[in-house]
Every structure is written in structure tokens, then in C-alpha cells.
Amino acid sequence: MLDILTSNVERRTSNHTMFYQIFLLGFYTAVTQILLLREVLSTFSGNELSAGIVLFSWLLGSGMGNFFSKKYIDRYNSGVNRLFFINLIFFIFLFLLNRRVKLILHMTSGEIIGFGPLFLFSSLFISSFCVIWGISFGSLYDQLRSKLNISFSESKLYYIEASGAALGSLVTTFFFVAISPFLTMGFLFILLSISFFLEIRKVTIPFVLSFLFALLLIFFQNHLNVESEKWRVGDFNIKAIVESYYGKIVVIQTGKGYSFFNNGVFLFSTDDDIAPQLESSLPLSQSDGMKRVLLIGGTSKTIAMMAENPMLEKIFFIDFDPALIKLQKVFIKTNYFKHPKVMVFTGDARYFMQRTRLKFDAVILSLPDPVNLQINRFYTKEFFQMVKQKLNREGLFMFRITSSENFISPVQGMYTGSLFNTVKKIFKDVMVLPGDDNYFLACPADNVLSADPATLERRVLSNDITSEYFKKYYIIFNFDPFRINNLKNSLNRKAKINTDLVPISYYYNITLWSTRFNQITKNIFSRLYHIKKAHVIGCLLVIFLVLFFFIKRKEDAVLLSIGSIGFTEISLEIFAILTYQIVRGFLYHNVGLVIFSFMAGLAIGSFLYQRMKSERESIFTRIQLGFVFIPFLIYLWYRLIQAVPVEFIQDVMFLIAVLAFSILSGIQFPVAVKLYSDNRYSAGRVNGVDLVASSLGAIIVATFIVPLLGLVDLLIILTFINLFTFIILHVKLNPYLLSWRKRRW
Q: For a Cys-Cys bond, which of 252, 356, 432, 626 suits 236, CB 3.0-4.6 Å?
């Protein structure tokens, strides 16, 4: 009797340890993924293309680890904690290697790394790192199924792992991103040491090693962070490192001044006097009575020059990151943020403009080029329409993009032409000034903007413009009619309009960026530009027709369905994130909620499956049919969210949308495991196909489909993918469905 009781206690203890390890697996993968993604973006000055490559490598590595875990399950069945320990050590190595990669490649701080080195780094190291996570998943499933003999173990594994990932996403987004990453690593090792102790219930060498690593990382976290960051910036003197919710801000000393970087992207330098002078002087040169100005982005130097001008009565300044404003107050002595004329706001500028009732004489956009989809929101037709509504009748809108002084290449002409065509769609009077930066000037009324030197010189005197740079020589050279017309004729008038749902200017910027590295990358982006929605759907039809005749087994049809839904899941998640940005502004504060909602939906779906009584084939096919209509329903839901005026309700509705389709995915996984092959390797194989398909979706959707075709066409393509898959699945599972119908009848 005592032996039986002891055996039951040991089994319950073993069960609890196993569940903790499953939960820890999900928690680890979420935390390390977010931290590593932020670090890679900081090193590679990344946009969505860089993020797509990283996610592609991450999901591909995890999928390959799951898919081929059969070879390693027997070897590591009793050592999952050892796999965790190896991967955390690998994660530290990968983290440090990422910070040192610029020194290895002999590149300077602020220099952009090409796609080739990024893809090589991701495929070699990140994929290898994630293979171990995939093996861990397969090993844990095998232990649940064969050793603990738990019924529905695949669904329990999935919802516990998804719950850990959901919590990891929340904790990382709202806590870990604002502290030193080495402090976070120390916390991860503490969790691992607990897992080692629970496994044997006594102090062991692995337990001691994990705890020692945790102490070293926690006590030396600041030193490790600063010294490793120096690898990334080179020989420059780092004055400040701030981990904000909006990214990593690094301030380095360059001579007597300071340069500011956000996630590896150069923002501005305190030594630069030209840009602030032009941003403050150009608008005044186009008006005889400018009093109220809105400045979006920019530096305190621009504010200082505006505040000193007696014509301006009120300057509204808005920046997304309060940490950036605080750092400017520390390192820029001529601080005008507290000037009586200046009103400072933090947050999303689009959100501010949608809510404010104020009208302005000028709106000045001082942001980087649309190098990513987040910044592209400020260069779209919808945003330009907001600006027009907030301007007085003869008000001025101004922004600038990087260009070339004397020669406009065809790619540059396409990029600049897209923005010109977009702004011309909204404003009646538009002028573009040539130079290393093209300055766009736009006005809602006709015949307000002037390039006449006499008029401009008169306004310089009457508006008390004291800029050292905006002098007669600048006016004569940059407002020269021949140079302005030459630039205007170099712009591609057939370039597409840039909109929220079709962010084509972002794609043009990627193409322009790719020309700086190699011809192969440039050719890929240039040729893909001509792809249409019909081409994609036609290719999909051909692929599915081939699959229809080659797929013979039920198991292959199940894997096809899992792959289609995996591709759809990541695509809908990207759709949700981008549309959330469009409606609600910056996603950084709430991205944890979106990821949490997705992972929570997977956990809920897996939990609900255990209480379902229907036949597996019926459930599986119905879910696949549901994904045919989900893209259309998601689009209607998005339009409904836009019509809702209350922010809290908008947030809840976004989370409900993500939760809805992820619940179906959570039900689909355990059903697929049972249908594929009811053996110890089925979970790894099914999850592997899901992750590999998701990896393809991450890079294809974020890099090509969204910028080229737009978000609406993305949903249409997803509908066709799931429709074709449903037809194949229904035909291949038809004998099982017929037998179910007969029994029910």
C-alpha cells in the first residue's frame, strides 16, 4: 500500500515538473524571440524586411527541429532541462555575436548592413538556435504521451506551451524591454534552476551552474550591457543607453556634439545646424502671416530657432518617445522645451491630429524616410488628408526625404514620384526643392507657394528670418526654375499612390536601399514590382492542381491543411498588427496584448478540443472551411473598428478578432496530430509543418504582398489558399465524412 502511495506521489510530482517544463518552453521562446528580434533590428538598422528574415529563420529553425525531432527524441527524452541550459548559453553567444557583427565585417556605426549578411547571420545562427527549441517540443510530447500516459496529451502540451508564450509576451513587452537584456537573461536562468531542482528534488551540479550564471548576469548586467554595446558602435564614446518601450536609444559623442540612434537608425546629430535652420526658415519664407506651427518629430534646435522668431506665437511639438525628449534635455544645452511659446506632446501624431480641434498655419513633418511600415503611415494619402483638414486655407505642409543633389536614378524617381503623386492627390499647390534632401512644400490653395527670389528675399526681411544658412545664395541656387523643373521631370508620374492599405512607398524605399548593396537584390525587387493579384492567384491554382493529383494519403492532406492555416495565421497576425497601427497609432505599448491574445486563443482552442465529441474528420474539415471566410470577416471587423469612436472599445475589438481565429487554430492542432498519425512523433511533424509554413508567410507577406498588393489583396489571396486547401481536404477525407454521415443518419 505504501509503495502504491509513493508511486502515485512520484507520478504527480513528475507530472507537475513536466507541466512546468512545457510552460517554461513557451515562456522561453517568447522572451528570447522578442529580445533577439529587437537586437537584430538595432544592429541591422532593420525594417519589416529585416524582421521578416529574422522571423523566417526563427520559425524555420523551430519547424525543422520539430519535424526532424524523431532522430533525437530517444537521446534527449530524460534531459529537457539540459536542452534548455544549452539553448540559453547559445542565446547569450548569439546575443553577443549580433552586437559584434559590425566589427567582424569592418563596418562603422550607423552604416547599413546589406540583406546578404543579415540572411546569412539569420540562417546560420538563429535557425540553429531555434532547432533546439523544436527538439524540446517533440521530446516533451513524447514524455507526456508514452511515459505519463496522459490522455489528450497533444492538446494539453499545446495549451500549456501557448499559455507560457502568452505570459512571456506580456512580461517582455511591459517589463523586460525596459531593463537590461542581461538582467532578463539572469531571470531566465533562475527559472531554469527551479526546473532542475523540481526534476530531482535536490541540489545538483546543473542546478548550481544555472544559479551561478543567474547571479553573474544580474550583478554584472550593466557592465556587460555597456561593454557589448561598444562593439556595435565602434570606437565612439557611449554617453547613454536607454531601453524604452519604443526601442533602444543610444547616444554617442562625436567630437563636441552628440549623435542619437534609435534601434540602430540614425536620428539626428547636435552638430547638424543645416536641417533645423531649413525646417524653421522654409515655411516662413512661404507665408506673410504665420503664427501657429505643428512640428512632428525634429530636435530642440529646430524648436529653438522657431521660438526665437517673433512672428510665431505658438509652437506645438509632438514626439512618440518621452525618453528621447528627456535625453535631448540632458545633452542639448539650448533647451527650448520649456519655452512659453512651446507646447510638448508625446504619443502618436496621427492620433493627436485625429483628436485635436486646433488649426495650424504650418505642419512640419521631421521624421526619417518611410524605411518601415510604421513610419510609412506618415507619408500616405490618408495622413496627408488629415494634415489638410488641420491647415488653414493658405497653410503650409512640409516634409523631406533623402535624395541626390544632381542625378535622380530611375529607382529614386519612382520613390520620389510616388510621394509626389500622393501629396498632389490631396493638395492643389505642390513644389519639390532639389538637393541632398528633397523638401516637399504643399498648400491646400492654388498659387500660394512661391519660387520667386524677390518675393522670398522680401519675406526673409519681413518675417525676421535670421538663419545663417537660408540666405540669398541658397534661394538663388535651390529655387532656380531650371533645377526645380529638371527634378520635376525626373519624377515617375506613373508611380503608384501611397496609402495605408497599400504602402507602396515603403516598397520603393526598400528597392532604393537594395541598390546600395548588390545588383541581384535590386533585380529581385525591381521585377517583383510588376506582380499583380491575378498572377499570385493563378500560381496558387497551378500549385494546388498539382497537389490535388499528387496527394494520395489522408496524412498528406492533413499536413497541407496545417501548412495553409499556419501561413494564414501569421498573415492575419501581420494584418492585425498593421491595421492596429493605422487605427490606434504606435503599437509598442499594446503589442504584448495582441501577442497575448493570439497565444491565449491557441491555448483556449486546445483546451476546448478535449471537450468536443464530434468526429475528428468533421472538426478538421469544418475549421478549414471556416478559414475560407475568416479573411472576409476580419476585413468587415476592421471597418467596424474604424467607425467606433471609443479607444478602449477599439482595443477590445482588435483583441477579439485575434482571439477568434487563433482559437480555431488551437483546436486544429490536436485534431491534426490525431489524424496525421497517432504515434509518438506526430506532434513534432505537425508542428514542424505549421512553423515552416508560418516562416514562409512571415517573409513573403511582410516583404512583398503587403507593400506591393496591399492588405485587402492579402485577405483575398488567403481566401483562395484556404478554399483550394478545403477542396483537396474534403475530397481526400471524403470516405471518412461519408461514414460519419451514415452513422449520424
A: 252
